[in-house]
């Protein structure tokens, strides 16, 4: 079965039904074939993680918040000044993916042109929550990212219905 991404009008209807909540600006974030998610927090990894087959010994790496800095007193939001390295981004938006949809995340092209990328896992049918993903800053000079910046685009596909997410997700 060939699936096509939901288009803008289909996605808008799904958002009205509760697919995505806590977005910053629906008109700006809604794209022709996806939805731009925004940055709530950026965290620096502080410990080693562990992964096994059954997840019974899985340990998610500890991470601490990177502090923002305002460039002027008029700034409503601060900036993260990030050096080269790996970071965890926690998004503002909450997703409630029904069992007939799956999402794939892609970095915004602006981010790529700055020497950064984002790595995502599959956003499974049935997943509910605030997601996080990996930001890799490859630019030797680093990058500055402002709070609420649009960095990652979720593209939703209809699965025709399936069993929902059975995993254990923790930030």
Provide the fold topology.
Blueprint: H1 8-16, E1 20-21, H2 26-29, E2 30-31, E3 34-45, E4 63-65, E5 79-82, E6 85-96, E7 101-107, H3 109-112, E8 116-119, E9 128-137, E10 143-146, E11 150-158
Antiparallel strand pairs: 1-6, 2-3, 3-4, 3-6, 3-11, 5-10, 6-9, 7-11, 8-9
User: How is the biggest beta sheet arranged?
Assistant: 9 strands, antiparallel
CATH structural class of the domain at 8-47 and 80-158: Mainly Beta
CATH topology-level fold name of the domain at 8-47 and 80-158: Deoxyuridine 5'-Triphosphate Nucleotidohydrolase, Chain A
Order of helices and strands: HEHEEEEEEHEEEE
Model regions low in confidence, pLDDT < 50 over at least 5 residues: none
State which percent range the strand residues make up: 35-45%
Features:
single chain, 171 residues, mainly beta, Deoxyuridine 5'-Triphosphate Nucleotidohydrolase, Chain A, nine-stranded antiparallel beta sheet, two-stranded antiparallel ribbon, 10% helix, globular
């Amino acid at each position: 079965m060939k699936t096509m991404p939901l288009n803008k009008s289909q996605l808008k209807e799904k958002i009205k039904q509760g697919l995505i909540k806590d977005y910053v600006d629906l008109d700006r974030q809604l794209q022709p074939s996806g939805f731009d998610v925004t940055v709530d927090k950026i965290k620096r990894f502080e410990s080693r993680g562990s992964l096994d087959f059954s997840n019974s010994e899985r340990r998610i790496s500890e991470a601490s918040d990177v502090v923002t800095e305002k460039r002027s007193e008029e700034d409503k939001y601060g900036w993260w000044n990030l050096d080269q390295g790996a970071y965890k981004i926690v998004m503002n938006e909450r997703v409630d993916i029904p069992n007939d949809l799956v999402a794939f995340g892609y970095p915004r092209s602006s981010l790529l042109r700055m020497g950064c990328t984002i790595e995502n896992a599959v956003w499974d049918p049935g997943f509910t929550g605030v997601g996080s993903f990996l930001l890799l800053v490859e630019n030797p000079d680093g990058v500055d990212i402002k709070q609420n910046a649009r960095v990652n685009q979720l593209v939703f596909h209809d699965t025709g219905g399936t069993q929902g997410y059975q995993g254990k997700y923790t930030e």
